Amino acid sequence: MAPILAALVLYLLPWAALAATVNVRWNVGYVYMNRDGNGVRRCIGVNGTLPIPPIHIVKGDTLVLQVNNMLDVPTSMHAHGLFQNGTTFLDGPSMVSQCGIPPAQSFTYIYKEVAQSGLYWLHSHTNHQNTAGLRTPLVVHDLGSPPYQYDGDRLLWFEDWYPREFDARANQTIHSFPPPITYPSALVNGYDGGKRMPALLLAPAKTYRIRLVNMSTTESFRFSIPGHPLHVIETDGYYTLPYTVDGVDMGPGQRYSVLVNVPRPPPPGRADPNTSVYKVELYANFIPKNALLNPLVHYGPIYQNVAQPPSSLLARYSHYSFDTKGKEKKNKKILLWSNDILIQGLANQRALPVDRQIVLNIGGAQFSDQTTRDVINNITYANSSVPTLNSVLTLPDSLVRNTTLYGGQTHSVVLDHLEVIELLVKNSNLLAHPMHLHGHRFQVVEYGPIAPNERPPFVPPTTDDPALQAEYQNILDTITPVVTNLGRPTERDTVSVPPMQYVKIRFRADNPGVWLFHCHMDIHFAMGMAMTFIEAPELLRKSTKIPKEMLDMCNALGIKSSGNAVGAMDTNLAGLPVAPSLVSTP
Predict the structure, then answer these.
(1) CA 539 → CA 114, 397, 535, 562, distances in Å?
(2) Hey, which of 15, 80, 88, 556 has its CA 20 to 30 A from 285?
(3) CA 187, 157, 332 angle in degrees (round to 5)?
(4) What is the C-alpha separation between 7 and 10, in angstroms, rounded?
C-alpha cells in the first residue's frame, strides 16, 4: 500500500537551501497498461511503469537526467518552460534542436543551475510520445522564502487519455477530416479520475499552495474547490499579484499555482470537519457536449483531519451532493475563472515597447494531397531533413539569414538580438489553440475579436441544423471586446487563443537559439500548426557548439548534421520534399 499512497497522497517535502545536483535515471520503454479501465494499450513509461514520478529540485540546482532509450524508435526530452539559456541544443524537439536518441542508446540532459522557479514539466518531443504517457511534472522550488507564505505545498497534474495510440488518430484526422468523435478519460496524478482520485490533505486554519499542470494532449481542464476561493499567484513559472477566482481553466501545457485558505472547522454537529471536495472537469468545446462525457466531471476528497484512516484515501469519492437526475446542485453564483489579461505580474514590469510586430494567422486548410492540415499564415509545418539548429551553426555566414535554406515548411523567421517582438496571433477557428513558445516567457497584453471578414465563411451560421446553430451562436456569444493590460501584464509560455479572437503577446529576443512556436494540442501540432524562430543567429554561431555525442546520435540515425535542409553547404535544395499546395481554407 505504501507506493500507492505515495502516488495518491499529496504532501509537503522540506526543501534544502543549498544548491545540489539531482540525478535522475530514466529507462524509457514500452509498457502495456489499462490506465482508465477501458482496456490495455501500449504506453511509454519509465523504469517499467506509469505514471512517472514528478521531479522536485530547488532553484540553483543542477538536474542531470539520464535517458536510456529502450524503445525501437528515437526519443528526446523537452523541459517545458525552462529557457535553456546558452543550451538551445538541450531544448529537445527532434529535428529542430537535436537528432533523437537512437534506440538502445543513452543521452544525458544536464540542466545546469536552473535559474527559474515554479511549475514546469518534462515530456518527450519526438513523434508525440508524450501522448503515450512519457510526461511528468517538474517542480522548481524557491531558494529560501518564496514571495508568498503558506503552510503546505500540494501538486495535481492532469492528463487526457485516449483508447487508441496517437499515430492512428492523427492519420485519420489528417486524411479523413473531421474524425469520429472520441471522448477521452481524465487522469489525475496518473490515475483514472473515475475510480480513485488523489486526496488533498489540507489542515484547518492553514494556507496551502496547490500547483496545477495540464499535461493533456488535446483537451482542457478546469479545477475548483466548490465554495472556496482560489488565489492565483503563478502562471507558467511567473509570480503574479494575488488574483481571486472560483476556479482555473487550463489549456494543454498551462500551469498555475493557487493559494487556498482553509477555514477553521465548524462547531461539532453542524458539518463534517474532516471532508470536503475538489472538482476537476475535462472538457472540449470542439466536440459535442455530453451529459456524462463532455464535460467529464470528477470529485476528489479533501481531508482536514490527517488522522483519517489511510484506507479511505484509496476509495472513490462518491457522497457529494447530487440531485435526483445525478447532476451537481447548481450554485447560482456566477463562477469567476482565471483570465490571463486580468492577472497582473508580481514584478512591476510594464508592457515592453514594441520593435517589430509579426502577424500570425492560425487555422486549418485543405491541401492538394487530399489532406486537411493546420497552418500558420497558410504554411503547414514539417521537419527539415537536418536539425534546424545544426543548419544555423554550419551554413556559411552569408547564408545564415536565408530562411529558405532551412526548408520552407519549417516556417523559419529570424529575430534580431534584443529586439522586442509582438506576436499578433489571430485564430479564425471555432476552437481555442494553446500556443507555446520555447526559450521564452511572454507578456500577455491584449485580447480582442478578429474582424468579421476574418471569420470562417460559415459564421454566422447558415446551416438549418438547430444544434449547430446553437453551437456557433454560443461561440459568438463568448467573443470578448478588446481588453488590454499594458501596465503590469502577467507572463507565461503557453497562451490560449480563443476561437475567432486574437491575442497580442510580447517578448524580448534575449536568448539566442532555435525555438519552436506551436500549438500544444498534439493533434494540431502534428497537423502543422507550428513555426520556428531563429534568434540572433550570428551571436548564436559564436557562442554555441553542439556536443559531439549529439552529432554522433545523428550519425547513428543516418541523419546529416550539417548544411541546409538537405545537407548541402550552399543554396542547393535538390531533394527537398515537395510540400502539398494549399487548396482552400475552411
Answers:
(1) 22, 11, 9, 18
(2) 80
(3) 85
(4) 8
Cell of 147: 514571495
Selection from 83, 90, 88, 114 nearest residue 20 by Cα: 114
Q: Is residue 152 within 8 Å of residue 105, measured between CB atoms?
A: no
Hey, CA dihedral for 524, 525, 528, 529, is it positive or negative? positive
CA 209 to chain centre: 20
Gap between the Cα atoms of 407 and 95, Å rounded: 12
Among 381, 414, 380, which residue's Cα sits nearest to residue 395?
414
The pLDDT score that the predictor gives to residue 287 is 81
Q: Any bridge partners for residue 435, and if so which?
A: 495, 519
Quickly count helices (H) and strands (E) in the chain: 7, 33
pLDDT-based confidence at residue 468 (cuts at 50, 70, 90): low
Q: What is the DSSP string of 108-140?
A: EEEETT----EEEEEEE-STTGGGGT-EEEEEE
Q: HEC string of 458-473?
A: CCCCCCCCHHHHHHHH
The C-alpha cell that represents 244 in the structure block: 481571486
Residues 460, 18: Cα–Cα separation, whole Å? 59
Q: How far apart are CA 419 and CA 490, in angstroms?
A: 20
pLDDT-derived band at 7 (thresholds 50, 70, 90) equals very low
